[in-house]
Design goal:
With 216 residues, the protein is an alpha+beta fold. The protein contains 8 helices and 8 strands. The longest helix is centred in the first third of the chain and has 38 residues. The chain starts with a helix and ends with a helix.
Amino acid sequence: MIKKLTIKEWLGTGYVLLMCLVLGGTALWYFGPSALTALRGSVPALAEKQSMTTIYGMSALGLFFLLFALFILGRKLSDSVGKRVRRYLESRPDVTEEQLDSDFNAAEKIGNVWIGRRWTFSHELRCILLENEGIAWVFSETERVKNGKNYYLCFGLVSGKIERMQVREQDLTPLIERYGKSPRILAGNNPEYDYMFRNNLASFLNLKYNAGAEDK
């Protein structure tokens, strides 16, 4: 489980990381030496073809891309999938990694989400995995970005917290319908659900979650 989710996470980040390295490395390789020469008080040969504003600007941009790539790399290494799973196991001494692996291997996969009997897994989740018994509501959110929209699957937890993860648009409906089959989970973007969840969690849980628990 950890290995597969780690690979998925790095594949998802790899394109951005590679682009930053290529753009930053290319800019610094071409403009960086001339910028250093100018900073030392000499006139670089490249100044005959490019303005110093361009040389300094492209060097700064290249440095920015490289630093951003290092930031992404450091963040992924410092908070890896394995570390997040181990933190969960430390908080739940009654759960073993073997149980997680078994549930993951038998899980139903929809897009980047693995829905097991006891847990939901995804590298797109900040916490990597959620206990299905802790999910009371599943809904969606849409976020407008420059080149289109981002789509999110959101989990309203029994604790009152909301966890969300980015998914493909075509996976939203199958995912929400799948969770809606649970005897305890409300599914959908009903405004009444949103108001009750945020303002009266106890009443919200009585809509389906608590009744489903009694039926188990």
